[in-house]
Amino acid sequence: MLVIDRIKTALINGELKPGDFIPSESELTQNLGVGKSSVREATKMLQAMGVLEVKRGQGTIIRKNPDEDALNPMVFQLILAKGIPQDLLDLRKMFEPAYSIMAMEKATDEDIIAIEKTLTDFDEAINNGVQDSSHDLAFHMAMLLATHNRMVIRIGKTLMELFDASIETSMKVLPNVALKDHKAIFKALREGDEIALRKAIVTSSISWETSLTYK
User: Where exactly are the structural domains of the chain?
Assistant: First the structure.
């Protein structure tokens, strides 16, 4: 849509910045040569995506921080495009080592404690027979947060949504293997050993791929 493209271009070029008010409905209508209904529809879509926020009596502003509960169109685009399972496997193999190495380089003591806690919780869940994808994903989310990079975290969260169903499968058939793999990744991260970290991630990826073949 023309209105959304115009706002997107303005953000990319720095004409609009987080916290700025966008032009009024009348200005957008006049400047872009579109109807008011088109402007309103675009505004609602950008609100749903967490880009815009309406300030009563003031106008509409560019949000300073992404809305965590906002609609994420990227998820739907990837869901529709993930018809080939190998594409999903390749995507994980490419992305996971990258953010894990970044996490190793940037993790604070608090991050290390948080990552380790997910492993403790995972272990306890397995012992109680209540493990599910949330326990596995908690580890990856803690790793993502340890990167302290908002873009990596945002993209990572989106990808984790795609992996949820397949991880749920591995939780049913090979939960102890998944936990063992995660512990190896964590050990390498804590020791700052990039070679060991990469090897542990490859092993984890193979285990995950193997779990998908179970019936």
Answer: 2-62, 73-211
pLDDT at 79 over 70: no
Equal fold, 2-62 vs 73-211: no
What pLDDT was estimated at residue 71? 55
Question: Could you tell me the pLDDT band of residue 78, with boundaries at 50, 70 and 90?
Answer: low
Topology of domain 73-211, per CATH?
Answer: Four Helix Bundle (Hemerythrin (Met), subunit A) (1.20.120)
CATH architecture for residues 2-62 = Orthogonal Bundle (1.10)
pLDDT value for 131: 93
- pTM for the model: 0.72
What is the arithmetic mean of pLDDT over 140-154? 95
Q: What own/partner pairs with CB < 8 Å and gap ≥ 24 does 172-181 have?
A: 173/211, 173/214, 174/207, 174/210, 174/211, 174/214, 175/126, 175/131, 176/126, 177/207, 177/211, 178/122, 178/136, 178/204, 178/207, 178/208, 178/211, 179/119, 179/122, 179/123, 179/126, 181/207
